[in-house]
Amino acid sequence: MTTLTDPAKGAFRLSMLIYDSRYRSITIQIIALIAVLTLIGWLISNTASNLADLGKQPSFGFLGEAAGYDINQRLIDYQNQDTHLRAAFVGVLNTLLVAAMGCVTATIIGVFVGVLRLSKNWVVARLMTLYVETFRNVPVLLWIVFTMAVLIETLPAPNQFRGATPEATMLLGDTVALTNRGFYVPEPLFSRSIGDIHLFGASPLRFDVSLDLIAVLATLIASFLIASLITRRADRIQAATGVRPRTWHWRLAVIVLPLAALLAGLGFYLGHPALKGFNFQGGVYMRNSLIALWLALSLYTAAFIAEIVRAGILAISKGQTEAAAALGLRPRRVMSLVILPQALRVIIPPLISQYLNLTKNSSLAIAVGYMDITGTLMGITLNQTGRELETILIGMLIYLTISLTISFVMNVYNDAVKLRER
Amino acid sequence: MTKLSYVRTEMLPEREPPTSATGVIGWMRQNLFNGWMNSLLTLISLAVIFWLVAGLLPWFWSPTWNAGSLGQCREIIAEAGKQSGACWGVINERWPQMLFGFYPQDLRLRPTLAFFLLFVALIPVLFAMISRRMNWLLLVLVLFAATFFGPGGAVMTVLQIVLGLGLAWLAWTVVATDRADRAAQIKEGVKRLPNPLIFSAAFVFLMPWLLWGGSVWVPVGVALGFVIGWLVFRLLNALIGSLAALILAIVTPVLWWLFLNGLFASAMQAVLPYGLEPVPSRLFGGLLLSVTIGVTAIVISLPMGIMLALGRQSDLLIVKSLSVIFIEFIRGVPLITLLFVASVLLNIFLPPGTNFDIILRVIIMATIFAAAYMAEVVRGGLAALPKGQYEAADALGLDYWKAQRLIIMPQALKISIPGIVSTFIGLFKDTTLVSIIGLLDPIGLSTSIRADTNWNGIVWELYGFVALLFFIFTFSMSRYSMYLERRLRTDHG
Amino acid sequence: MKKTVFLGALTVAAIAAGAASAATLDDVKARGKLNCGVVTGLVGFGAPDANGRWEGFDVSVCRAVAAAVLGDPDAVEFVPTTGKTRFTALASGEIDLLARNTTWTFSRDVDLKFEFVGVNYYDGQGFLVRKDLGVSSAKELDGATVCIQTGTTTELNLADFFRANNMSYDPVPIETNAEGQQQYLAGACDAYTTDASGLAATRATFEDPAAHVILPEIISKEPLGPLVRHGDQEWGDIARWTLNALIAAEELGVTSANIDELASGTENPEINRLLGTEGSLGEMLGLDAEWAKRAIKANGNYGEIFAKTIGESTPVGLARGLNAQWKDGGILYVPPFR
């Protein structure tokens, strides 16, 4: 009887590192690793010797020094005597603010335009195509600068609201003022506020969260949970009896009543802006740099999202529409019940990268003087301290963290809605 | 039972559709005003269009083309009795600067020629439907046209005659034999014209030479490096195996470029001096700068992107993670931070004493940026290939590199072309960001122009002009990309 | 040393030179060009004209240094820099001289390791407001919206001023003067603050300059001057004394018109030393005897440059003020050429 045996393993020879496929991949990897490490080491040693020549030792001590400059747009309190770290934190929050606002608006406009581009209405479809093509084919930096210029040049200055016969008037019963410095809108205030929580003590990352806001949010979440329970109960009854009980008034009551009670308890009122001194005072002030950046980023990204949405809808086979129509669904319900849910699966992955692009493009804020992380840490702080290496490094890491977080969250969502293939 | 029939036995004659359903009115009813919602949308759209046109047209129509300063513009507009109007004098005076920046005026033929040749070089890569004869005809036509704008002289006249003859001959063959005849001729064994891809490959070396000038032997030497690498690979492949040969084939040209090319170029220059007047990249500006950065970065990033995509797809853990880290890092940060690195940090990373020109530093960072995106595009192409292609390549006994070179990449790259074009469009638009670090691209230049006392205070005209420049480029490119996508779709049934 | 390195198909001219070290003069001479950092565009101080030729007050300093060192006022490569990139460009050796209305401050001199070679314009930060705002002093600006140019000392001065006077304000940071002007004119800010020279230059180009007023308060000292890297005293001396030569020429009555005549020898020994007909000042600098003559001939003396680029006869319309010669009530006072 003969048995098949493995070929005899010869003694290990050096040449096997190249010729033997078992070892070759390891060899390649180690060579690659060594090459990359050498490159990195070379860069670091260059940097060290160059910095030594310039007499600058890398140090992050400047983050603890007083910044000395003012930031107009801030979500948390900040004075010019706060540290550079605090200024950077203000910048990060501003970046997140405009990115979040931009993503929401861009999605809304994008879906709207994407659907309208497929409209049978010739004028509407052409107009939407015009919009998409103009916005997609001109650099976003130009759009940002353009939008800013339009806001500044076309809206009235606060001065024009003054005098016995003002050239400009406030809108909506003197509650909203659109000026070229920004928009002043009524501000929710509480006369019996329950105060703020102060997080992180006096550190540069200190953060105040309004308890009123938390209470409102908690109430809303609880109400919506209860409302969904009601819906589910209705579903059960429908499944069991075939008759769906009317629940909308219950759901409405569950959502509206507790909120109204809470607001009344906290003494909710709206603070209206009014012209005092040089500017409007009171109300929420959205400055023109924020609006310009937000609008430009939204409109620019929306043009891309519109294309994604259109492609997503077109990707759904015509049979789906016809089948839905055969079931007797109206066109609008076909869209919302059959086409969009399926198109969503095609749409989400490219949508994620549009959100990422928008967030990254928000770094162009410096073109209009919006103080995001590029404007504070990588802008004025860099200029004042001369710490290029450190500031840019931190800035890049912050953007990287934001990007990775967004793509992580969106990927989780994408996995959740993905078609489960069996 | 009486036989009752209520069924009509003869057909009614056909009637014309009512006027409300045909012609303009019918079309409008069907497309614009079916249902109150649609009518409303139509009316709103028309109102928007009217508002845009009524707002912009009077402003556009402004007889200020010859004004020499904003003050003069204001006078002209006031004379014309208008409230406001565009001041086109600034465009009239500065458009060459917006296109070429500070590129020496007498040498501007060179970038223009490079630009047109770029199209000729791209045609065989991007459009497969143009015949070889057409392509060479176009090339000769562009060169022939260029000679009329160049400096005169005996050499130029001779060149003109030669090119003119070549043009005539090519044109005659194109006119005389149609496609079918030509195909028959080729079948019979008539020699075909050389593949125009040869020119596309040569153009990679020709373009930098045209733009930056200098000795002709420098680009020749660089090209020679590639030839050397290829020879090394061919010679050693049989001797020491493909991997080692590949490594050597990469190392040898690099050594050649780093150490011997300079010697070669100066030696050849001493023997056969020929060159163009060198133009430092500092003089690049305006649209020329955007196009240079965009095109150079995309061309160099393509091979880098392919390598990164392969690395990311590879089974080798370390190679894979290095590629992933690189790609995700670059894609995770905004381009502007990379440009900050180019403007303030890159010199610190390099050995003490080296000092790259800022534009070259920007090109380096833009290349790295584009490579990461390119890697993702190519990866998409690789993923779209049916698994059977990989298996078939394995079944044929091809090794990894051969399989990639002969089977996988040609198909994957073809699928990726629309993605590559849109990456290029994105990068091209993003080149405007260099204005933030002080380079004078069209946007940067418009700031400089506004610092001229004559034009201080001008806003819309300059931005509008820049927007138009970019729109023309990117719109045509995106149309092309859409055309490609359509063509690719039909190819795959 | 110059060698050409290739990276792929891209021709990369790496000018390997002891950039951050000494011997800038040798580098400049070997290169045949002076690399000079300037603004990307500021009315009167530096901007390219339609032919791409840079003109302006700061630009003239570059040209004068190039004329002194290389004998040709056009042998300059102008490198446009922003507030962010200017110092790194100088520190890394990308430029040899930065002439970009940069304020001489302690930290820039000591901490950032630069050497200011003198002051070519004494400036101060001021405020520009509309007349109809009814404000006559900067102290009345409590609560106002103020446009500031970022990347300068301006925002720190402003913060200090308002803090010291216990007033609040709303800063609007802007990148370029052109944008600041646009925002201010449209009324998006009540006041525009930057160096008073810049304000005057900006106001001069308005449609109706008389409707705007520069407030009397000057809230800071802004000595603007060219600067070089620490560590190369010889190069610093050349830049310093070229600037001094321009100023001294005005004091001594040497102009571009009469310089050829004066260069053949005069009664005044200082003029003779300046123009190289007496003594060996040029040699001490490592240059030839006629260095100052060329520098002055390039664009004229300090007064001529001032008059031509930003003076009262130009649209910028700046008065000499502090920048007059000490004999005329200003503070320009150069050390003697001896």
Blueprint of the fold:
The complex is a heterotrimer of chains A (422), B (493) and C (338).
Chain A: H1 16-19, H2 21-54, H3 84-117, H4 122-136, H5 140-154, E1 177-179, E2 182-185, E3 187-190, E4 196-199, E5 207-210, H6 211-241, H7 248-266, E6 268-271, E7 274-276, E8 279-281, E9 284-287, H8 288-315, H9 318-326, H10 331-361, H11 373-385, H12 388-417
Chain B: H1 23-31, H2 36-60, H3 70-79, H4 89-100, H5 109-126, H6 132-149, H7 154-176, H8 179-188, H9 197-212, E1 214-215, H10 217-240, H11 242-271, E2 275-276, H12 286-313, H13 317-332, H14 335-349, H15 358-384, H16 387-395, H17 400-430, H18 442-450, H19 460-491
Antiparallel strand pairs in B: 1-2
Chain C: E1 3-7, E2 10-14, H1 24-31, E3 34-39, E4 47-48, E5 54-55, H2 57-70, E6 76-81, H3 85-91, E7 97-103, H4 106-110, E8 114-116, E9 121-123, E10 125-130, E11 144-149, H5 154-164, E12 169-174, H6 177-185, E13 191-195, H7 196-204, E14 212-214, E15 222-229, H8 233-252, H9 259-262, H10 269-275, H11 281-285, H12 291-299, H13 302-309
Mean pLDDT over all positions of chain C: 85
Supply Rg of chain A: 29 Å
CATH H level, superfamily name of the largest domain in chain A: MetI-like
Query: What structural class results from the helix and strand content of chain A?
Result: mainly alpha
Structural class of chain C: alpha/beta
Helical segment count of chain A: 12
Our estimate of the beta-strand percent of chain A is: 5-15%
In the CATH scheme, the class of the largest domain in chain C would be Alpha Beta
- SS elements, strand count of chain A: 9
The number of domains of chain C is 2
Q: The CATH topology of the largest domain in chain A, please?
A: MetI-like fold
Could you describe the 3D structure shown?
The complex is a heterotrimer of chains A (422), B (493) and C (338). Helices cover 62% and strands 8% of the residues of chain A. Chain A is mainly alpha-helical and 422 residues long. In chain A, strand 1 (177-179) and strand 2 form a beta hairpin. The longest helix of chain A has 34 residues, at 21-54. With 493 residues, chain B is mainly alpha-helical. In chain B, helix 5 (109-126) packs antiparallel against helix 6 (132-149), helix 12 packs antiparallel against helix 17 and helix 17 (400-430) packs antiparallel against helix 19 (460-491). In chain C, helix 5 links the parallel strand 11 (144-149) and strand 12 (169-174). Chain C folds into two domains: 25-122 and 224-328, D-Maltodextrin-Binding Protein, domain 2 (3-Layer(aba) Sandwich); 125-220, 3-Layer(aba) Sandwich (D-Maltodextrin-Binding Protein, domain 2). In chain C, the strands form four sheets. In chain C, strands 3, 6, 7, 8, 9 and 15 form a six-stranded mixed beta sheet that branches. The longest helix of chain C has 20 residues, at 233-252. Chain C has 13 helices and 15 strands. Residues 1-21 of chain C have low confidence and may be disordered. Classes of the chains: A mainly alpha (422), B mainly alpha (493), C alpha/beta (338). At the A-C interface, helix 2, helix 5 and helix 11 of A face helix 3, helix 5, strand 12 and helix 6 of C.
